[in-house]
Design brief:
- The chain is an all-beta fold and 247 residues long.
- Helix content is 0%, strand content 35%.
- It has no helices and 17 strands.
- It starts with 5 loop residues before the first strand and ends with a strand.
Length: 247
């Protein structure tokens, strides 16, 4: 049976971290005041509180156009052949397999788990218990694998590589689990000059993990919008009060 997708807890729960997985990745935690968080796994580098963090970069030899075995409607797994990069056991657990071309294209399935798959090797991707192939797959079908957006998250780099998913309310050690905030008041690292009541975005080419003003008529106007400045306006390298609206 699947984990609950939303949990309610008292203040302080959002700061619990550790090496044991207690929830499905992406589970939503809501505090009594309405602040919201997503359950995440840090990548190989520790996450700092108050910095924005992003989903890891997809693996180029896994992300699309994978040769796919024939599968009937109702199948509980989909077998694919990887490109020249191996996949560790359960690398895509809690993630997704999607059909990107050919018969059955446009479908997305939740991944329960899989065995290790060698570079250029084939392996069965087991679907979540209640998820089954809805449209038969044939020799024209091509698939891609996508990790859970909250698996292996990293501090958002200066050159944006993927979607920012949240802000840790406390430090999370490398390869440990914790919560990243997606909605409500948060203390966030600031870069440059921000304006009270105006939007913020990923800082881009200035500071890893920081936010800066979103200038809709200037450079960086296409970067992801993350929230609105509230409270006292902070200076560069300080942490300012921001109302996040990431999800």
């Amino acid at each position: 049976m699947a984990f609950p997708t939303r949990v309610y807890a008292d203040y302080g729960m959002e700061k619990k971290t550790g090496s044991t997985k207690y929830h499905s990745l992406g589970t939503l935690l809501e505090l009594p005041d309405g602040r919201e968080y997503k359950y995440a796994l840090a990548g190989g580098t520790a996450l700092t509180s108050g910095t924005i963090v992003a989903a890891k970069v997809p693996t180029g030899n896994h992300d699309m156009d994978l040769v796919t075995a024939v599968a009937a409607v109702g199948a509980t797994s989909i077998t694919v052949t990887l490109g020249g990069t191996a996949a560790a056991k359960d690398l895509y657990a809690d993630g997704y397999i999607f059909t990107n071309d050919g018969t059955g294209e446009g479908q997305v399935y939740r991944v329960k788990g899989h065995d290790a798959i060698d570079s250029s090797g084939s392996g069965a991707i087991n679907l979540a218990d209640a998820d089954k192939v809805a449209v038969a797959l044939d020799t024209t079908t091509l698939c891609g694998l996508a990790p859970n957006p909250y698996s292996g998250v990293v501090i958002t780099p200066q050159t944006v590589t993927n979607r920012t998913v949240g802000v840790p309310p406390t430090a999370i050690a490398a390869d440990e689990y914790g919560w990243v905030q997606t909605k409500g008041l948060a203390s966030v690292l600031i870069s440059g000059t921000v304006v009270l009541g105006q939007h913020i975005r990923v800082a881009g080419a200035t500071t890893d993990g920081a936010v800066m003003a979103l200038d809709r008529s200037g450079s960086g106007e296409d970067e992801q919008e993350l929230g609105i400045v509230m409270g006292v306006v902070s200076v560069t390298t300080d942490y300012g009060l921001v109302f996040l609206n990431i999800d």
